[in-house]
Amino acid sequence: MLKCKNLLLKPSKRKRKRKNINITLFPRKHNIVSEKQDPPNPLEDEDVEECFSLKTSAPSHSHGVQPLGNLYFNPSSHNSRNTGLGNLQTLTDELVLEILGFLSATHLGVLSTVSKSFYVFSNHEPIWRNLVLENSEDGFLYNGSWKSTYVAAYMPSFPVSSIGSSGLKVRDFYSDYLFQSWLCANLEMKPEWLERDNIQRRRGISVDDFILNFEEPNKPVLLEGCVDNWVALEKWDREYLVEMCGDLRFSVGPVEMKLEDYFRYSDQAREERPLYLFDPKFAEKVPRLGLDYEVPAYFNEDLFGVLGNERPDYRWIIIGPAGSGSSFHIDPNSTSAWNAVIKGSKKWVLFPPDLVPPGVHPSPDGAEVACPVSIIEWFMNFYAATKEWKKKPIECVCKAGEVIFVPNGWWHLVINLEDSIAITQNFVSRRNLLNVLDFLKRPNADTLVSGTRDRVNLYDKFKNAIETSFPGTIDELVLKAEEKKAQQKKPSFWESVTDSRAGAFKFSF
Fold it and tell me: Which residue range or ranges hold the JmjC domain (predicted)?
């Protein structure tokens, strides 16, 4: 289980600094509102910009942290955050936490006794989460909080249950950064974040129709009824999976865990970024699971299969609680994908390749993507902006028994709306073979290609295997692409007529 080390540890890197917002709490049950920059007036409802609802079981912040907007209503204008930090108060909250991320658990414990402010910072749950995950070799047993989990592994005889009950509430501590982490973990998805459903839905269409209307034009579609015969749809629940998998371990973020231990975590955890079980080798570990489903007919052509055991990772079992998911990304190696929900439901937001989502900043070479810390944070700070766009994202809620097709190059975000189980596979068909080959031979392929140990040589291996298995296919596809490109440049009949008349007019003049 958890192996504890008393050493300096690097802090986890955040992809993007939080966008600070002033959130003011009002004496209404489970109601939080976000205000404009001017001091809010709780008596004037017309000034309210947005309302957020907390989950019914949401606890108060464990250490009494309040949003910075509440400082306006503090008669003394005293923020114990600043007095407790002393000369370090000029540092941002993010920088303070980055520094504390270098400390060992022992040093964090000592620092927490210096002042109330340091007590709050030193007990910030994400710091203890990093300590647990960075010291986990054989998984961990979650004990209600990350700090309790660490202490239980390091000192098994210590009564860890007392850690949560004896937490110190600090008065007059105001911090948007610390509060938002708690807020994102306890917010309900707003109805307006779920109501837009503009994806095309199809049931019972032929493979040819799918290729013509969706795969060739590279458009998403939600397919209904195509997995109704799956054994997984009937059997795959928590009890069945735990029984089938036993003591085998699956990939959960940076650690490997037994399913039983993961469900123990997912039942208890209430955090901004819940750990997601996302395992690419599940069918090799438990062959029975690979037999409980079959690839829908629309996605049977998978050309990476010519590589045999050397093919990149391509299929995953995905398990996660409500709030877990994947922030904006493009699927690896320029592949397309399909995702089938077996239990639960997922909210999808997709942007076409030429439209980068708001709040997302890819590097010029595409190797890294900077984005908000969590999915909920993106909805809070950036989702509303898409309403004003002429070219709106494709959105839907995908429920059990439904399959979504994600074309290559599309940005997409996924969040589980409840405890969910799903299967996803990435694939290469003739429609996107040239895109994949172009991707694999990029100059920085060693940083872009994923899912394989041999990133540098994957292009040559794949191209040679295709030419051996399907002689002439690549040349044929290149020729068709050139013809299509030439056809697009060729002026239409009416454009030719217009140009001719314009030339004649110029000559006579």
Answer: 284-444
Nearest of 13, 32, 184, 181 to residue 102 by alpha carbon: 13
For residue 149, tell me if it sits in a domain: yes
Residue 10 lies in a domain: no
Same domain, 176 and 105: yes
Please count the CA atoms within 13 angstroms of the CA of 272 that sit on its side-chain side: 25
Closest CA to 291 of 345, 235, 237, 248: 235
Instruction: Give me the domain span that covers residue 321.
Output: 192-468
Count the neighbouring beta carbons within 10 Å of the beta carbon of residue 401. Answer: 16
**Domain edge (last residue) among 159, 186, 213:** 186
Neighbours of 170 (CB within 10 A): 19
- Calpha distance 201→80 (Å, rounded): 54
> CA 43, 47, 51: angle at the middle one, nearest 5?
90
**Domain-embedded: residue 344:** yes
Does some domain include residue 163? Answer: yes
Encoded tokens for 272: 């901004």
**Torsions phi, psi of 5, nearest 5?**
-125, 140
Q: Which of 411, 405, 440 is nearest to 311 (CA)?
A: 440
Confidence at residue 50, expressed as pLDDT on a 0 to 100 scale: 56
Phi, psi of 96 (to 5 degrees): -60, -45
- For the chain, the domain total comes to 3
3-state secondary structure at position 223? strand
Question: How would you list the strands of the sheet with 50-53, edge to edge?
Answer: 23-25, 31-34, 50-53
∠ Cα 112 154 93 (to 5°): 30
Q: Is 56 exposed, middle or buried (0-12, 13-18, 19+ CB in 10 A)?
A: exposed
Alpha carbon distance 419, 344 (integer Å): 6
Residues 430 and 500 grouped into a single domain? no
At 368, give phi and psi (nearest 5°).
-135, 155
- CA angle 38–43–47, rounded 5-degree value: 45
Give per-residue pLDDT as tens, 194-246: 999 999 999 999 999 999 999 999 999 999 999 999 999 999 999 999 999 99
Tokens linked to 465: 């295997």
Residues 245 and 139 in one domain: no
**Contact at 8 Å (CB) between 222 and 201?**
yes
pLDDT band at 335 (very low <50, low <70, confident <90, very high): very high
Q: How many Cβ atoms from other residues are within 10 Å of residue 83's Cβ?
A: 14
Q: Quick one: how far is CA 245 from the chain centroid? A: 25
- What's the CA gap between 439 and 437, in Å, rounded? 5
Residues 478 and 437 placed together within one structural domain of the fold = no
Q: In this structure, what is the dihedral angle of CA atoms 495, 498, 504, 509, given to the nearest 10 degrees?
A: -130
Number of C-beta neighbours around residue 361 at 10 A: 12
Rounded CA-CA distance 170/166 in Å is: 12
Residue 95 C-beta-side C-alpha neighbours within 13 Å: 6
Q: How far is CA 88 from the centre of its chain?
A: 33
